[in-house]
Please model this.
Amino acid sequence: MDYREIITIEADKMGGKPCIRGLRITVYDVLDYLASGMTEADILADFPDLTSEDIRACLAFAADRERRLSSIPA
Model:
């Protein structure tokens, strides 16, 4: 799965924040829900437009972003 096929960034949508498939659900929102203790099943129940693959794409996006930030020399 390539998260770049799922995570979209559009300047005119949600202030250019990374979103899922052009929906108005941001990667940040999904990560925040997971961090607050919501399970994947909870998120999918609250947001029926999302899929398990969407949630994994958010995690992959965050991991890639962290990897890129970690590789920047201090």
Observations:
- Residues 52-70 form the longest helix (19 residues).
- The longest strand covers residues 7-8.
- Helices lie at 27-35, 40-46, 52-70.
